[in-house]
Design brief:
This protein is of the alpha/beta class and about 350 residues long. It contains 13 helices and twelve strands. Helix 1 crosses helix 3 and helix 8 packs parallel to helix 9. About 40% of the residues are buried.
Length: about 350
Protein backbone atom coordinates (compact mmCIF):
# COMPACT_ATOMS: atom_id res chain seq x y z
CA UNK A 1 0.00 0.00 0.00
CA UNK A 2 2.93 2.33 0.66
CA UNK A 3 4.20 1.68 -2.88
CA UNK A 4 0.75 2.43 -4.32
CA UNK A 5 0.48 5.60 -2.25
CA UNK A 6 3.94 6.77 -3.35
CA UNK A 7 3.21 6.16 -7.05
CA UNK A 8 -0.23 7.78 -6.88
CA UNK A 9 1.12 10.66 -4.77
CA UNK A 10 -1.55 10.21 -2.12
CA UNK A 11 -1.61 9.08 1.51
CA UNK A 12 -1.84 5.46 2.63
CA UNK A 13 -5.18 6.35 4.20
CA UNK A 14 -6.49 7.40 0.78
CA UNK A 15 -5.36 4.10 -0.75
CA UNK A 16 -7.12 2.22 2.05
CA UNK A 17 -10.28 4.27 1.55
CA UNK A 18 -10.35 3.43 -2.17
CA UNK A 19 -9.74 -0.29 -1.58
CA UNK A 20 -12.30 -0.62 1.20
CA UNK A 21 -14.78 2.05 0.03
CA UNK A 22 -14.64 3.25 3.63
CA UNK A 23 -14.58 6.98 2.92
CA UNK A 24 -15.40 9.39 0.12
CA UNK A 25 -12.47 9.97 -2.22
CA UNK A 26 -12.61 12.37 -5.14
CA UNK A 27 -12.98 10.66 -8.53
CA UNK A 28 -9.64 12.09 -9.69
CA UNK A 29 -7.70 10.73 -6.71
CA UNK A 30 -9.53 7.38 -6.81
CA UNK A 31 -8.57 6.97 -10.47
CA UNK A 32 -4.91 7.74 -9.67
CA UNK A 33 -4.96 5.05 -6.97
CA UNK A 34 -6.55 2.47 -9.29
CA UNK A 35 -3.97 3.21 -12.01
CA UNK A 36 -1.15 2.82 -9.51
CA UNK A 37 -2.58 -0.48 -8.29
CA UNK A 38 -2.80 -1.74 -11.87
CA UNK A 39 0.73 -0.59 -12.69
CA UNK A 40 2.13 -2.36 -9.62
CA UNK A 41 -0.19 -5.38 -10.02
CA UNK A 42 -1.30 -4.79 -6.44
CA UNK A 43 -4.12 -6.84 -4.92
CA UNK A 44 -5.47 -6.36 -1.43
CA UNK A 45 -4.72 -9.13 1.07
CA UNK A 46 -8.20 -10.58 1.44
CA UNK A 47 -7.16 -12.95 4.22
CA UNK A 48 -5.84 -10.10 6.35
CA UNK A 49 -8.89 -8.04 5.50
CA UNK A 50 -11.25 -10.85 6.49
CA UNK A 51 -9.55 -11.20 9.88
CA UNK A 52 -10.28 -7.53 10.51
CA UNK A 53 -13.83 -7.38 9.14
CA UNK A 54 -14.97 -10.93 10.00
CA UNK A 55 -16.09 -11.44 6.38
CA UNK A 56 -14.44 -12.80 3.25
CA UNK A 57 -17.15 -11.71 0.79
CA UNK A 58 -16.96 -15.21 -0.67
CA UNK A 59 -19.94 -17.55 -1.02
CA UNK A 60 -19.64 -21.30 -1.53
CA UNK A 61 -22.05 -23.17 -3.82
CA UNK A 62 -22.20 -26.97 -3.78
CA UNK A 63 -24.10 -28.75 -6.54
CA UNK A 64 -24.53 -32.50 -7.07
CA UNK A 65 -23.93 -32.68 -10.84
CA UNK A 66 -22.24 -29.98 -12.93
CA UNK A 67 -23.14 -31.85 -16.15
CA UNK A 68 -26.86 -31.35 -15.48
CA UNK A 69 -27.79 -28.13 -17.35
CA UNK A 70 -30.25 -27.21 -14.60
CA UNK A 71 -27.46 -26.26 -12.18
CA UNK A 72 -25.41 -23.88 -14.38
CA UNK A 73 -28.62 -21.93 -14.99
CA UNK A 74 -29.26 -21.69 -11.24
CA UNK A 75 -25.65 -20.65 -10.60
CA UNK A 76 -25.92 -17.83 -13.15
CA UNK A 77 -28.88 -16.42 -11.23
CA UNK A 78 -27.04 -16.75 -7.92
CA UNK A 79 -23.92 -15.05 -9.28
CA UNK A 80 -25.95 -12.09 -10.54
CA UNK A 81 -27.10 -11.34 -6.99
CA UNK A 82 -23.70 -12.12 -5.43
CA UNK A 83 -21.85 -9.81 -7.83
CA UNK A 84 -24.36 -7.04 -7.20
CA UNK A 85 -23.44 -7.23 -3.50
CA UNK A 86 -19.67 -7.38 -4.26
CA UNK A 87 -19.33 -11.07 -3.38
CA UNK A 88 -17.39 -13.78 -5.18
CA UNK A 89 -18.49 -17.39 -5.63
CA UNK A 90 -16.62 -20.67 -5.23
CA UNK A 91 -18.30 -23.58 -7.02
CA UNK A 92 -17.96 -27.19 -5.86
CA UNK A 93 -19.28 -30.23 -7.77
CA UNK A 94 -20.11 -33.18 -5.50
CA UNK A 95 -20.58 -35.56 -8.43
CA UNK A 96 -23.56 -37.19 -6.63
CA UNK A 97 -21.11 -38.42 -3.98
CA UNK A 98 -22.14 -37.76 -0.34
CA UNK A 99 -18.60 -38.21 0.99
CA UNK A 100 -17.21 -35.76 -1.55
CA UNK A 101 -19.99 -33.33 -0.68
CA UNK A 102 -19.11 -33.51 3.03
CA UNK A 103 -15.42 -32.88 2.28
CA UNK A 104 -16.32 -29.86 0.17
CA UNK A 105 -18.56 -28.48 2.89
CA UNK A 106 -15.75 -28.86 5.44
CA UNK A 107 -13.27 -27.19 3.06
CA UNK A 108 -15.54 -24.22 2.45
CA UNK A 109 -16.08 -23.86 6.18
CA UNK A 110 -12.35 -24.02 6.95
CA UNK A 111 -11.67 -21.36 4.30
CA UNK A 112 -14.09 -19.08 6.15
CA UNK A 113 -16.58 -18.47 3.35
CA UNK A 114 -19.40 -16.25 4.55
CA UNK A 115 -22.08 -18.83 3.74
CA UNK A 116 -23.06 -21.75 1.53
CA UNK A 117 -25.77 -22.54 -0.99
CA UNK A 118 -26.20 -26.29 -1.36
CA UNK A 119 -28.27 -28.72 -3.36
CA UNK A 120 -27.70 -31.99 -1.56
CA UNK A 121 -26.39 -35.24 -2.98
CA UNK A 122 -27.11 -36.88 0.36
CA UNK A 123 -30.62 -36.26 1.73
CA UNK A 124 -29.55 -37.48 5.18
CA UNK A 125 -26.75 -34.92 5.61
CA UNK A 126 -26.69 -33.40 9.09
CA UNK A 127 -26.49 -29.64 9.51
CA UNK A 128 -26.45 -29.73 13.32
CA UNK A 129 -22.75 -28.87 13.53
CA UNK A 130 -23.13 -25.89 11.22
CA UNK A 131 -26.27 -24.75 13.01
CA UNK A 132 -24.43 -24.76 16.34
CA UNK A 133 -21.73 -22.57 14.79
CA UNK A 134 -24.39 -20.22 13.38
CA UNK A 135 -23.00 -20.85 9.91
CA UNK A 136 -25.29 -19.33 7.23
CA UNK A 137 -26.60 -21.96 4.82
CA UNK A 138 -29.48 -22.10 2.33
CA UNK A 139 -30.67 -25.27 0.62
CA UNK A 140 -32.01 -25.05 -2.92
CA UNK A 141 -33.68 -27.56 -5.25
CA UNK A 142 -33.03 -30.68 -3.14
CA UNK A 143 -34.14 -30.12 0.45
CA UNK A 144 -33.09 -32.57 3.21
CA UNK A 145 -35.97 -33.91 5.31
CA UNK A 146 -36.39 -31.98 8.53
CA UNK A 147 -34.07 -29.14 7.48
CA UNK A 148 -35.13 -26.10 9.51
CA UNK A 149 -33.56 -23.29 7.53
CA UNK A 150 -34.10 -21.15 4.46
CA UNK A 151 -34.93 -23.12 1.32
CA UNK A 152 -35.80 -22.38 -2.31
CA UNK A 153 -37.13 -24.89 -4.82
CA UNK A 154 -39.68 -25.45 -7.53
CA UNK A 155 -43.07 -26.70 -6.40
CA UNK A 156 -42.22 -30.21 -7.59
CA UNK A 157 -45.48 -31.74 -6.42
CA UNK A 158 -47.35 -29.30 -8.66
CA UNK A 159 -44.92 -30.05 -11.49
CA UNK A 160 -45.54 -33.79 -11.35
CA UNK A 161 -49.28 -33.24 -10.99
CA UNK A 162 -49.61 -30.90 -14.00
CA UNK A 163 -47.50 -33.12 -16.27
CA UNK A 164 -49.54 -36.22 -15.41
CA UNK A 165 -52.89 -34.45 -15.52
CA UNK A 166 -52.04 -33.26 -19.04
CA UNK A 167 -51.41 -36.83 -20.21
CA UNK A 168 -54.51 -38.19 -18.48
CA UNK A 169 -56.58 -35.36 -19.95
CA UNK A 170 -55.52 -36.40 -23.45
CA UNK A 171 -57.04 -39.82 -22.83
CA UNK A 172 -53.96 -41.83 -21.89
CA UNK A 173 -54.61 -44.67 -19.46
CA UNK A 174 -51.25 -46.46 -19.47
CA UNK A 175 -48.97 -43.73 -18.10
CA UNK A 176 -45.44 -44.45 -16.89
CA UNK A 177 -43.04 -42.35 -14.82
CA UNK A 178 -39.25 -42.36 -14.72
CA UNK A 179 -38.96 -41.03 -11.20
CA UNK A 180 -35.24 -40.71 -10.45
CA UNK A 181 -34.15 -41.20 -6.83
CA UNK A 182 -37.25 -41.18 -4.59
CA UNK A 183 -35.16 -40.43 -1.48
CA UNK A 184 -34.46 -36.95 -2.91
CA UNK A 185 -37.10 -34.32 -2.22
CA UNK A 186 -37.35 -33.23 -5.86
CA UNK A 187 -38.15 -36.67 -7.22
CA UNK A 188 -40.24 -37.72 -4.23
CA UNK A 189 -42.48 -34.69 -4.70
CA UNK A 190 -42.77 -35.18 -8.47
CA UNK A 191 -43.74 -38.78 -7.83
CA UNK A 192 -46.34 -37.65 -5.29
CA UNK A 193 -47.76 -35.24 -7.86
CA UNK A 194 -47.90 -38.07 -10.39
CA UNK A 195 -49.79 -40.30 -7.95
CA UNK A 196 -52.19 -37.49 -7.07
CA UNK A 197 -53.09 -36.85 -10.71
CA UNK A 198 -53.47 -40.57 -11.43
CA UNK A 199 -55.76 -40.95 -8.42
CA UNK A 200 -57.93 -38.01 -9.50
CA UNK A 201 -58.20 -39.53 -12.99
CA UNK A 202 -59.06 -42.90 -11.39
CA UNK A 203 -56.13 -44.57 -13.11
CA UNK A 204 -54.07 -47.38 -11.57
CA UNK A 205 -50.41 -46.74 -10.72
CA UNK A 206 -48.78 -49.94 -11.94
CA UNK A 207 -45.46 -51.04 -10.47
CA UNK A 208 -44.16 -52.04 -13.90
CA UNK A 209 -44.75 -48.49 -15.16
CA UNK A 210 -42.81 -46.84 -12.30
CA UNK A 211 -39.03 -46.84 -12.66
CA UNK A 212 -36.83 -45.53 -9.86
CA UNK A 213 -33.20 -44.85 -9.04
CA UNK A 214 -31.74 -43.57 -12.29
CA UNK A 215 -30.25 -40.08 -12.71
CA UNK A 216 -28.20 -40.59 -15.89
CA UNK A 217 -28.62 -40.92 -19.64
CA UNK A 218 -27.67 -44.58 -19.34
CA UNK A 219 -30.38 -45.19 -16.74
CA UNK A 220 -32.97 -43.48 -18.94
CA UNK A 221 -32.00 -45.68 -21.87
CA UNK A 222 -32.23 -48.81 -19.71
CA UNK A 223 -35.65 -47.76 -18.43
CA UNK A 224 -36.77 -47.02 -21.98
CA UNK A 225 -35.90 -50.46 -23.31
CA UNK A 226 -37.59 -52.13 -20.32
CA UNK A 227 -40.84 -50.16 -20.79
CA UNK A 228 -41.08 -50.10 -24.57
CA UNK A 229 -40.39 -53.84 -24.99
CA UNK A 230 -43.18 -54.83 -22.59
CA UNK A 231 -46.08 -56.82 -24.11
CA UNK A 232 -48.41 -53.96 -23.13
CA UNK A 233 -46.18 -50.83 -23.13
CA UNK A 234 -47.31 -47.44 -21.86
CA UNK A 235 -48.79 -44.96 -24.31
CA UNK A 236 -47.37 -41.99 -22.36
CA UNK A 237 -44.25 -41.42 -20.26
CA UNK A 238 -43.37 -38.64 -17.82
CA UNK A 239 -39.57 -38.27 -17.45
CA UNK A 240 -38.94 -36.39 -14.20
CA UNK A 241 -35.24 -35.74 -14.89
CA UNK A 242 -33.70 -34.16 -18.00
CA UNK A 243 -30.77 -36.59 -18.30
CA UNK A 244 -33.09 -39.59 -17.95
CA UNK A 245 -35.21 -38.04 -20.71
CA UNK A 246 -32.24 -38.06 -23.10
CA UNK A 247 -31.68 -41.76 -22.42
CA UNK A 248 -35.34 -42.56 -22.93
CA UNK A 249 -35.36 -40.75 -26.28
CA UNK A 250 -32.27 -42.75 -27.29
CA UNK A 251 -34.11 -46.00 -26.52
CA UNK A 252 -37.13 -44.85 -28.55
CA UNK A 253 -34.93 -44.09 -31.54
CA UNK A 254 -33.09 -47.42 -31.38
CA UNK A 255 -36.38 -49.35 -31.13
CA UNK A 256 -38.03 -47.32 -33.88
CA UNK A 257 -40.83 -46.12 -31.59
CA UNK A 258 -42.44 -42.95 -32.91
CA UNK A 259 -43.39 -39.98 -30.75
CA UNK A 260 -46.15 -39.02 -30.24
CA UNK A 261 -47.89 -41.53 -32.54
CA UNK A 262 -46.95 -44.50 -30.34
CA UNK A 263 -45.77 -42.87 -27.13
CA UNK A 264 -46.40 -39.36 -25.82
CA UNK A 265 -43.52 -37.89 -23.81
CA UNK A 266 -43.36 -35.13 -21.20
CA UNK A 267 -39.88 -34.05 -20.14
CA UNK A 268 -38.52 -31.98 -17.27
CA UNK A 269 -36.65 -28.65 -17.64
CA UNK A 270 -36.67 -26.50 -20.75
CA UNK A 271 -33.29 -25.43 -22.07
CA UNK A 272 -31.91 -24.38 -25.46
CA UNK A 273 -31.18 -27.98 -26.41
CA UNK A 274 -34.86 -28.95 -26.17
CA UNK A 275 -35.31 -27.07 -29.45
CA UNK A 276 -33.34 -29.84 -31.17
CA UNK A 277 -36.00 -32.45 -30.38
CA UNK A 278 -38.32 -33.62 -33.12
CA UNK A 279 -41.18 -33.43 -32.49
CA UNK A 280 -40.90 -30.36 -30.27
CA UNK A 281 -40.90 -31.44 -26.64
CA UNK A 282 -43.70 -30.90 -24.14
CA UNK A 283 -41.91 -30.20 -20.88
CA UNK A 284 -42.17 -28.82 -17.37
CA UNK A 285 -40.05 -25.67 -17.11
CA UNK A 286 -38.51 -24.58 -13.83
CA UNK A 287 -37.68 -20.93 -13.02
CA UNK A 288 -33.99 -21.84 -12.84
CA UNK A 289 -32.36 -18.43 -12.61
CA UNK A 290 -35.00 -17.20 -10.21
CA UNK A 291 -34.18 -20.14 -7.91
CA UNK A 292 -30.55 -19.00 -7.86
CA UNK A 293 -31.42 -15.35 -7.35
CA UNK A 294 -33.86 -15.99 -4.50
CA UNK A 295 -31.54 -18.46 -2.76
CA UNK A 296 -28.57 -16.09 -2.91
CA UNK A 297 -30.61 -13.17 -1.62
CA UNK A 298 -31.87 -15.26 1.31
CA UNK A 299 -28.28 -16.22 2.12
CA UNK A 300 -26.95 -12.65 1.93
CA UNK A 301 -29.77 -11.46 4.19
CA UNK A 302 -28.91 -14.21 6.67
CA UNK A 303 -25.20 -13.29 6.56
CA UNK A 304 -26.00 -9.63 7.17
CA UNK A 305 -28.10 -10.48 10.23
CA UNK A 306 -25.36 -12.71 11.63
CA UNK A 307 -22.77 -9.96 11.17
CA UNK A 308 -25.00 -7.55 13.08
CA UNK A 309 -25.76 -10.20 15.73
CA UNK A 310 -29.45 -9.98 14.90
CA UNK A 311 -31.65 -13.01 15.62
CA UNK A 312 -33.06 -14.90 12.66
CA UNK A 313 -36.80 -14.20 12.75
CA UNK A 314 -38.20 -17.36 11.21
CA UNK A 315 -37.04 -19.32 8.21
CA UNK A 316 -38.48 -19.11 4.74
CA UNK A 317 -39.42 -22.06 2.53
CA UNK A 318 -39.93 -20.60 -0.92
CA UNK A 319 -41.71 -22.68 -3.57
CA UNK A 320 -41.62 -21.29 -7.11
CA UNK A 321 -44.27 -22.13 -9.68
CA UNK A 322 -43.38 -24.48 -12.57
CA UNK A 323 -44.78 -24.02 -16.07
CA UNK A 324 -46.08 -26.82 -18.31
CA UNK A 325 -45.12 -25.94 -21.90
CA UNK A 326 -47.25 -28.01 -24.27
CA UNK A 327 -45.74 -28.69 -27.68
CA UNK A 328 -45.78 -31.57 -30.17
CA UNK A 329 -44.55 -34.62 -28.22
CA UNK A 330 -47.94 -35.27 -26.60
CA UNK A 331 -51.24 -36.12 -28.26
CA UNK A 332 -54.31 -38.31 -27.89
CA UNK A 333 -53.60 -42.05 -27.97
CA UNK A 334 -54.85 -43.77 -31.10
CA UNK A 335 -57.63 -45.63 -29.31
CA UNK A 336 -58.93 -42.39 -27.80
CA UNK A 337 -58.98 -40.80 -31.26
CA UNK A 338 -61.05 -43.65 -32.66
CA UNK A 339 -63.55 -43.52 -29.79
CA UNK A 340 -63.89 -39.75 -30.15
CA UNK A 341 -64.71 -40.19 -33.86
CA UNK A 342 -67.57 -42.56 -32.94
CA UNK A 343 -68.85 -40.08 -30.37
CA UNK A 344 -69.01 -37.40 -33.07
CA UNK A 345 -71.04 -39.58 -35.47
Amino acid sequence: MRDVARLAEVSIATVSAVINSSAVVSPKRAEKVRRAMEALDYHADQIARSLKTGRTNVIGIIIPDVTNPFYPEVIMGAEEVAAGAHNSVILCNANENPEQEQRQLNTLFSHRVDGVLISCSDPSISFDRLARRRFPIVCFDRIPPGFRGNTVSTDNLAAGYEATRHLAGLGHRRIAILAGRPELSTHANRLEGFRKAMQEARLPVLDDYCRFGGMSVEAGSEFGFALLEMPNPPTAVFCSNNKVLLGFVRAMNELGVSCPEQVSVVGFDDFAWTGNFHPKLTTVAQPTREIGRRAMQLLLDQIAKDCENQPVTGNQQILLKPELRIRESTRLPKRAEVSSQFRNV
